[in-house]
Amino acid sequence: MTKELALATAAALALAGGAWADVIKVGVIAPTSGPYATYGTQFRTGVDTYQAIHGHEVDGDTVEFIWRDSGGVNPDQARSHAQELIIREGVDYLAGFTFTPNALAVAQIIDQSQTPTVIFNAATSIITEESGFFVRPSFTLWQVSAPLAEWAHGQGIEEVVIAVSDYNPGIDAETGFRTAFEAAGGTVLDTIRMPLATTDFAPFMQRVRDAGPDAVFAFLPAGPPTFAFVKAYNDNGLPGAGVQLLGTGETDETTLEALGDAALGVYTAYHYSPDHDSPENEAFLAKLFELHPDAVPNFSTVQAYDGAHVIYEMIRAAGTDGPAAIEAVKGLEWISPRGPVQIDPETRHITQNVYIREVVRDEDGQLVNREFETIEAVPDLGLVNDY
Ligand code: PHB
To answer: Tell me, which fold does domain 21-139+277-348 have in CATH?
Structure first.
């Protein structure tokens, strides 16, 4: 054997044995077109920012994110993307999922292929119980709605109407809020489940007014629906009628400027505001704006940023061994731009602070969700619930 041939053979053997760097692929399923395309943009911006700070490699292996467009609520599309990504692209991890039905649709597939799947948003409690391969560093509606109900009752709000989008996370928001509010001694006067496709909320506003509550608690998917709902709340004179608006992502930053003064004075409970005061948030925002000067960061940006962290830590601990990666992520703790967080070893869902916020104008006249009260280390109350 010539010297050259010997060298080439050694190199080929090393490559086959994995001694050379690999590419570890992460398939991301998220809306990048249609009315919810903002989620895709936010997810990309979050992942970009993470990779810009922490590099594109973990222990010498390159981490590559491969994107697929799910559009809106479309479980069939999500399922076929998951199949294609796992079988044809050979991805080692899956991520993304804005909508609960899309996440639920891949549970069986990821179980069969043992693919760790990191939820960047979808927020119905049951998701993590549908497959042991789901990890969720986003939030749940139970996690934010129940603390909001307790806080509101403590403020003297005695009677509410609940108005939610009629699909999984809406039902969780309704149940979480009602359970905590009634346990605190409050009364729910009426419950309205609104079709997801609703664009005209005036009839629902009339129904709220007729009930005469102290407040209306609402959940709709953040984006065009929340924008239309908050506008209708104002246009139909509910603030003047003494009905406070309580929500979760209803004053999300991507719609805030367009809402303008209509958003002022809305109270929400949520896990992230870009207005959050911490060195970790400052560093995150500085890198994000360096990369994307026109970005409008919101909860889904930070959820994808933290999601990338969870993926990097699984790769660091277990490479492409799915079951080992899931074991390794249980109990993982870090300081997120949103505050201290942990992946609950029992539920694989994030334990995090929930902040009570009010929309105000900041020193520069910008509308912000200003955090003024913190409920610390809240688990997914839909799964760990002692009401
Ligand atoms: C969900 O479908 O779980 C979902 C979608 C959008 C949100 C929150 C939850 O803003």
So the answer is: Rossmann fold (3.40.50)
Domain 141-270+354-378 has CATH 3.40.47.10: no
**Three-class SS string for 99-138?**
CHHHHHCCHHHHHHHCCCEEECCCCCCCHHHHCCCEEECC
349 DSSP 8-state letter: B
Please tell me the residue having the least CA distance from ligand 1 atom 6.
221
Q: What angle do CA 27, 32, 33 make, to 5 degrees?
A: 145
pLDDT digits 0-9 by tens, 149-204? 999 999 999 999 999 999 999 999 999 999 999 999 999 999 999 999 999 999 99
Residues ≥6 apart with Cβ < 8 Å to 125: 140, 141, 142, 172, 349, 380, 382, 383
Q: What's this model's pTM, rounded to 2 decimal places?
A: 0.94
316 alpha carbon to ligand 1 midpoint, in Å?
30
Cα-to-centroid distance, 249 and ligand 1 (Å): 9
Structure-token match 């990369």, residue found: 291
